Amino acid sequence: MEEYDYLLLGHGIAGATLAWELRRRGRTVLVLDAAQPDSASKVAAGLMNPVAGKRFALAWRADELLTAAGTLYREMEQHFGQQFFFELPIWKLFSSVAEQNTMLARSADHPWQDFVENAGAPLPPLPGVHSEFGGLHIRRGGYVQLRELLAALTAEQLANGGLRHETFNWQQLVTDPSGITYAGSIRARHFVCCEGAAAIENPYFKWLPLTPNQGEVLDVECQGLAEAQVLNKGAYVVPLGNGQFRVGATYRWPPFAAGTTPEARLELSGRLAATTSLPFEVRVQRAGVRPAVRDRKPLLGRHPEVPVLSIFNGFGSKGVMLAPRLAALLADHLENTDLELWPEVNIKRYQALYQATPTQVGAAGFSS
Question: Which CA distances in Å does 147 have to 13, 72, 191, 207, 301?
Fold first, then answer.
């Protein structure tokens, strides 16, 4: 029997950061992952933005989350000797005089703290960029090359035996008060579900209000477009180096198309054309399914009746910014139950939705 402190399901940004956090604390961790080539984490632009959304509001706990994320990604860079985190300003470009007036009027109330630099100052012109209505300079943003980071983490853990590529079989999971046994050969004190949108089929946690959301991105070549900042004018334009950019992302609720769609390609190409007059060529189009939650806060915590099972999920499009700090938060809680989770992310906020009976919990042959 192989014995571990933790068995994790899923190696996207959630599972990978939690596994890193637990291992740095000296815990033994095994991760099982289905190795989907276009998971949400591998498709994402990896953007970290303290001011975003339709309301263009300051992100929840922005300072704390950005600080923790920067620290973790720098630590990973040092470990691998490779750069993954690129701290760049984000330019929010106004699309009209009306938007310009609205944003500048809001800035008088200082809603973005120090994350927006001198809101009334004009942005310097950039070749080929449509910035005739001005914009805002957002500080402390940037992006993480998630695909490359996850590849490095995956290669290391496959070599070390800490990660296995396989499809999880819920029929082979057995729980008891002191831990779990999986496939008759793996024993762990804790089992943490980090499987992203696939959690809608998780027999223990499918009562949570997780709603998958499909997003598509384009990788384009646009020679001459400035690469010293991220641009945002209806879509994010993230520099990847050597005249390459990632443009995204779309948001589509179920039902989903199978794979990429011509509608998303047309939509994102149009948004890029509204940002720059420079010619561009689409090189790659990808689609992934994000794990979104109705209140836009992640889902962390232990199962109400089977506390050896926990969930770390629901990061939507903000996993790269949220996961590092919340991985530490969950690890603190799992190691010491006296350390409470933040109420905004604790699954106890949805306790009223939990109506599982012993028959439902054991419907697939589980034991508890």
Answer: 10, 16, 25, 30, 27
Q: What is d(CA 96, CA 132) in angstroms, rounded to the nearest whole number? A: 9
- Rounded to whole angstroms, the Cα distance separating 198 from 206 reads 10
Partners of residue 284 on adjacent β-strands: 219
How many of the other CB atoms lie within 10 Å of CB of 259?
Answer: 11
Using an 8 Å Cβ cutoff, are 213 and 249 in contact? Answer: no
- 249 preceded by a cis bond (ω within 30 of 0): yes
Could you tell me if 21 and 75 are in contact, meaning their C-beta atoms sit under 8 angstroms apart? no
d(CA 9, CA 56): 34
3-state SS assignment for residue 220: strand
- Model pTM score: 0.94
DSSP assignment of 104-145 equals HHHHTT-TTTTSEE-TTSPPPP-TTB--TT-EEEE-S-EEE-
Cis peptide before 255 (omega within 30 of 0): yes
Cα atoms in the 13 Å half-sphere on the side-chain side of 304: 17
Reported as a single tens digit per residue, the pLDDT across 154-192 is: 999 999 999 999 999 999 999 999 999 999 999 999 999
What φ, ψ does residue 199 adopt, rounded to 5°? -65, -15
CA distances (Å), origin 208, targets 6, 304, 311, 355:
22, 12, 10, 11
